[in-house]
Amino acid sequence: VKPLEKTIVERVSPAAESSEGAPLRDRGDGALPNLIKAGDMKKWPAHTLKESDTLKYAIELLFKSNVSTLVVLDENNNLLGALSPCDLLKFCLPEHLLWTEDLGPLVEFTQFTEVLEKASDTKVGDAMNTIVTAEVNVPAVQLAKTFIMEQVREIAITDSGKFVGMVEINDFCSHLFWI
Questions:
Q1: Over the chain (179 residues), what is each successive 10-residue block's mean pLDDT?
Q2: What pLDDT is attached to residue 102?
Q3: Following CA atoms 90, 96, 101, 104 in sequence, which dihedral angle do they give, to the nearest 10 degrees?
């Protein structure tokens, strides 16, 4: 087993300066970069949505593809938002019912039935929510802070507003603890 050139702590933390005073860089020779950035950890999700897609299509895609979030993009890959199972629940349930102890009005799941009956006519844009983002060049350690402070399980990675991928907390921790 070839030993790693740098420890993971050195890779996710600001790197030491080289003797010339410039940060160490990947010179294309396989050497590790001086600092892992958000863009180094991103994956392109298997499925994305458009704001004009129907909610019916989004629900089918969300649960058949077994993903936690579907990203909503415009035709130029600009990030518009996201749709998750939690977003669907929020869309179905009137907010005032979430604050009451009396769940009687919810027992029959009529709110869900009403949404499903209209799902072919409802657009993703009506149900999507915002998603936490990070720019491609931020240090990976910023992602760790964002996961904790924002209490999210995924972060959309953008490059000047254009969506370039996702980092999920499980993948992030896998890189952090197992590389």
A1: 44 42 42 72 86 94 89 92 91 74 68 80 93 94 94 94 92 79
A2: 72
A3: -80
C-alpha angle with apex 14: 13 to 17, nearest 5 degrees?
Answer: 135
Question: Which position has the token pair 């593809």?
Answer: 65
Q: Position 131: which residue type? A: I
Taking alpha carbons only, the member of 5, 61, 58 closest to residue 34 is 5
Measure the N-to-C terminal CA separation of the chain; round to a whole number of Å: 13
Contact between residue 167 and residue 142 where contact means Cβ atoms under 8 Å apart: no
Please give the model's pTM, rounded to 2 decimal places. Answer: 0.71
Can you tell me whether residue 163 is helix, strand or coil?
strand
Which tokens is 55 given?
């909610």
d(CA 140, CA 167): 10
Q: What span, in angstroms and rounded, lies between the C-alpha atoms of 92 and 88? A: 6
CB atoms within 10 A of CB 37: 20
- CA–CA gap between residue 6 and residue 14 (Å, rounded): 12
